[in-house]
Amino acid sequence: MADASFTGSDSGNAQDRAHARSLADPEGFWGEAAAAVDWIKPWQRVLDHSNAPSYRWFAGAELNTCWNAVDRHVAAGRGAQAAIIHDSPVTDSIRTITYAELQDQVARFAGALRGLGVDKGERVIIYMPMVPEAAIAMLACARLGAVHSVVFGGFSARELATRIDDAKPKVIVAGSCGIEPNRVVAYKPLLDDALAQASHQPERCVILQREQQPATLIAGRDLDWAALMADAAPVDCVPVAATDPLYILYTSGTTGQPKGVVRDNGGHAVALTWSMRNVYDVEPGEVFWSASDVGWVVGHSYIVYGPLLHGCTTILYEGKPVGTPDAGAFWRVIEQHKVSVLFTAPTAFRAIRRDDPQAQHLGRYDVSSLRALFLAGERCDPNTLEWAGEILGVPVVDHWWQTETGWAIAANCLGLEQLPIKPGSPTKPVPGYDIQVLGDEGEPVPPGTIGRIMIKLPLPPGCLPTLWGNDERFRASYLAAEPGFYLSGDAGYIDEDGYLFVMSRIDDIINVAGHRLSTGGMEAVLASHPDVAECAVIGVADQLKGELPLGLVVLKAGVNRTDADIGKELVAKVRNEIGPVAAFKSVLVVQRLPKTRSGKILRGTMKCIADGTEYRMPATIDDPAILEEIEQALTGAGYGAH
Ligand code: COA
Ligand code: AMP
Question: Among all ligands shown, which has an atom nearest to the Cα of 512?
Answer without folding.
Answer: 1
